[in-house]
């Protein structure tokens, strides 16, 4: 296929916020690589929707926690779509509620490997391609953090919140590091969003249960988060970097 000028990689793009972001970005002219770890059918469904609407998309398998998979992901996009100009570090996991005095080393390693190391690996490969220092033309990195980074998620998953605190710090430090190299780095911090991540963490009714505690009285949607991500990706936010954008209904 012809190489596109606006190329985005969305990790964890087969469902939830990632899928909504891929679909919206494609509607705004981005060629999108939909990364997935296991949900091949869901990723292909997102790609099919994009193509049926006249957009350009590919699905690329890869576990972001595995360094070799991340390198292969970016090399695949280089070959099929061209040099990446926007990265959305969306892939992430939660675990069932547990106190800190109950968590295991296995659980901690899984959360930090995927949520933190995966984001670092992807950011590294993106900077290698975007930075003017490396011959690139600039670009944008949007990290998906969480309101949990500032709330702490006591009695549910302090470990998950800690991974997102690390994402906030990555965003701030990397933004300053590459600001003079044509790269903007920002993060969105969603609050309680109606996606299936809650069921995967053992709390399928979490959005309904927490809605009364949210000042706006409801959970958010994946599409509402995607709107902010795609704005940060593109040319409409040229002076915005190092931002941590809360999308939480005032939670």
What would your notes on this structure say?
- The chain is of the alpha/beta class.
- 44% of the residues lie in helices and 15% in strands.
- The chain is built from 9 helices and 7 strands, in the order E-H-E-H-E-H-E-H-E-H-H-E-H-H-H-E.
- Strand 4 (86-89), helix 4 (105-130) and strand 5 form a beta-alpha-beta unit.
- Helix 1 packs parallel to helix 2, helix 3 runs parallel beside helix 4 (105-130) and helix 4 runs parallel beside helix 6 (158-178).
- The radius of gyration is 17 Å and the shape is globular.
- The mean pLDDT is 96.
- Belongs to the short-chain dehydrogenases/reductases (SDR) family.
- It holds the Pfam family adh_short_C2.
- InterPro entries: NAD(P)-bd_dom_sf, Sc_DH/Rdtase_CS, SDR_fam.
Shape: globular
Helix- and strand-based class? alpha/beta
Q: What kind of oligomer do you see? A: single chain
- Characterize the biggest β-sheet: 7 strands, parallel
**Order of adjacent strands in the largest pleated sheet:** 3-2-1-4-5-6-7
Poorly predicted regions: none
Helix content: 40-55%
Give me the strand/helix succession. EHEHEHEHEHHEHHHE
**What number is the mean pLDDT?**
96
Give the number of DSSP strands: 7
Rounded radius of gyration (Å): 17 Å
Distance between the termini: 44 Å
Total count of helical runs of at least 4 residues: 9
Strand content: 5-15%
Please outline the helices and strands:
Layout lengths: L6 E4 L5 H12 L3 E6 L3 H13 L4 E5 L5 H14 L5 E4 L15 H26 L8 E6 L3 H4 L6 H21 L4 E8 L6 H4 L5 H5 L11 H12 L10 E4 L4
Parallel strand pairs: 1-2, 1-4, 2-3, 4-5, 5-6, 6-7
Helix pairs in contact: 1-2, 1-9, 3-4, 4-6
